[in-house]
Amino acid sequence: MNIRQEYEITLEPFTQEDLARDIPLAQRIWQVSWVRKTVILILLAVLWEVAARIQNNDLLLPSFLQTAAAFYEGILSGELINKVWISLTVLIQGYVIGIVLAFALTTLAVSTQLGRDLLGTLTAMFNPLPAIALLPLALLWFGLGQNSLIFVLVHSVLWALALNTYAGFLGVSETQRMAGRNYGLKGLRFVWHILIPAALPSILAGLKIGWAFAWRTLIAAELVFGASSGKGGLGWYIFQNRNELYTDKVFAGLAAVILIGLLVENLLFANIERLTVKRWGMQR
């Protein structure tokens, strides 16, 4: 009986390009996230245009093309860009202050029993309170200035972020906590090196919720603030054009609000998640 000689075949490394060649081009294109989202936006624009033509009343519902033309004119004249800049400047200030206060509260809450009681009491008191309801009080305290808007923005960001962050801290496994203690980590170092990385999905969710709350609170507050002071950002732009019955410009202002929300969600937060929690295998 002849014994067959053993041999080894060297295989070429498998690459993603090899897999891609087996998938049809149309399916590969459809698998790209931004392509699917673009198709959804195009379909919504078409439905809008059809509904506007059926309605046939520019005062009630301008068409998508009319709104796009008003948006382009606002960008070209610089008016819309100026309003967006005013709104974003105030928004970022209130958002950053809210983040700092939220992390201070949650750090205190995970460190001491008094901090936990303080966070639980304050969130139970103020989280159900609409931020816009504090605007009259803010105008009384801070006057007709940006400080009034920043005050209500901090309120809208603080409690949502604090609750999500604290819930994330509580969800950190005891194994990770013990590993941190074995390395001698305590206080702020323990929070920074152990709790924050482990609770990052909850923290990012809180940041996104806080951003959404702050953005819509700012626009609503500017409708009142702008009406009181005669100036403001996107909210005032919408309010002023509504009074002058320029409905296409009103929709252009609303479109600017939506576009900024889409950009922040898909460029800022999506990239942060891709580089952190998704890369680390903490989130699909």
Automatic annotation (TrEMBL):
Domain ABC transmembrane type-1: 80-269
PROSITE patterns found in the cross-reference section: ABC_TM1
Membrane topology summary: Multi-pass membrane protein
InterPro entries noted in UniProt: MetI-like, MetI-like_sf
Subcellular location field: Cell membrane
Residue spans crossing the bilayer: 84-110, 122-143, 149-169, 190-213, 219-239, 251-272
Keywords: Cell membrane, Membrane, Transmembrane, Transmembrane helix, Transport
Transferase among keywords: no
Leader sequence segment: none
PANTHER family linked to this entry: ABC TRANSPORTER PERMEASE PROTEIN, ALKANE SULFONATE ABC TRANSPORTER-RELATED, MEMBRANE SUBUNIT
Family indicated by similarity: Belongs to the binding-protein-dependent transport system permease family.
Protein name: ABC transporter permease
Organism: Pseudomonas folii
